[in-house]
Amino acid sequence: YSEPLCRDIETDLRLHIHTKHLAHMQALNPKTENLKPLRPFIDMAPIRILGLIVDIKTEVTHYLDMNFYNLTTVALHDWRTYSDMRSLAAEKLGLNLMDNFLPMGSLDQGLDVLQIMRNIHVFVSKFTYSINMQQFVEYRPDRNSKHLTTISIQSIAASIRQHGLGVLNTTVNFTYQFLSKKFNIFNQFLYDDNIRGHLSREHRWFKKHKNENDVNNMYPYDRAVNVVKEIFKLGVNEAKKSYLDQFRMLITEIGNALGYVRMVRSASMYYCSEAVKYLPDFEDVISFRDYAGAAGDDEVSGAMLSDETVRAAANLDETINTLMCNFGKSSDYFKVLVDVFQPVLLTPENDHLKTFYMIVPSLCISWIEASLAAQEAMTKTGNIRAAAGSAGSGSGGVPTGREAYFMDDGFAVGVAYCLSILKQTRKYESLHWIDTINNKIRVDRKELKNKQEIRLAKEALAKEKEASVRRKSSIFSGFSLTGKGSKEKDKEDDNYEEKQKDDDEIFELQNSSKKLENFSREAEQLYYSMSGAEIFFKRTDTDT
Q1: Residue 379: how many CA atoms within 13 Å on its side-chain side?
Q2: Which neighbouring-strand residues pair with 404?
Q3: Which residues contact 516 (CB under 8 A, 6 or more apart)?
Q4: Residue 129, phi then psi, degrees to nearest 5
Q5: Which residue among 61, 126, 385, 501 is the one 20 to 30 A from 474 at the CA level?
Q6: Residues 181-208: pLDDT tens digits?
């Protein structure tokens, strides 16, 4: 008998909350909408019907408590919506709903480590990597997704606790198979005649002119930009990505795969450290099997316990030894992944790979432009992401369309890894690319400062001229001249056009200053990320 009223109250609360949080829904207008008065029913005193006492307020409260609890258990990520509806019910209708005591969030630990390994080719293309935080953030969510997935060391450690430490070696094997396929595409790109021709030309030019005064052993920024433009002329794909952009994304995916290996290794150490903290003496661990059974050592007196207890003690010894070995083990999986590909790529058949380091400056320019565009997309209306995201539009959930993210260190790791495999780290450093970038930023700032000074001088001159005109107008204010109205109108038009030009010039200077600072920040971030990534691949060969 009270169910229609309960449904109407729940619908009213839901619409009010959704119109507040969802941009595509408009708030209800009480003047135009035929809204039902609900509060009078809640304020009614209990009534007696056929010998039964019916309390409308109690019935509605029970209905909302039950529905909010059931719906929250189905979708824990909607806990905030029902919490807001509970608060609105108390404020608007005077209903004191009980707390459901459910967790404020999801109990899901995220993607499982085995699921990531089986679909690593999908994972590295949909997530961005942070080298400092050791975290992956999804930036290409599925259509209609309501949240973005993040993967941290803690979530990987939870999977290791479930599957065991053996997943570490399995991760390296899966990564090796994935890298083998990616290096095949890497090889084909650099083998292309157009790409190989550009890189060989740049290599010969720099070798010939690097000692000249105007070059000063620094690869010019203009030539790197020219390579970007020349490769862009070769064509683009359906997503308007040039071949250079696709190659940059390939290297980023390689770096993301290596970042995942690093994260799994760190997660295994975290898991072991959490487990070994219960050992009373990490340096001197006793043998529980000897103490539980009949020990043959004179220093150890066994307890002569049952065979089952001795076997359990032996299992405990094996578990402790496994934790201690993995906790103190310093396996350099990056070095393994470098050594396994070097004999294959450093062969006479792959001679075209010797000029790979010449394309790195152009790749850096492509990365900076893509990073700035992605961060700009995050601030656009309708494309804001909670941490990082991607684009298009769907019927609710996370919007999709332009790529939007705020971190992408996979590119830096991928470049450092490829240079280490090909033994071209020092060759790349001989380009002094970071010095070229810093020099360009310094020159651009100087030019911008000169323009700003010219602009300030022009404004000061305009103010002085305006003050002079005011003084003259005050002196001759008593005189009237024929044709004064038309002349003043023409003068106002000229002043308006001049003011428009001044406003455009000021906007252009402000925009240029903002772009220059953003470019400088991204270039500096890329330099530090690449410097940090080079540490992973220690120089064991003088050629690198």
Answers
A1: 4
A2: 389
A3: 441, 444, 445, 448
A4: -115, 140
A5: 501
A6: 999 999 999 999 999 999 999 999 999 9
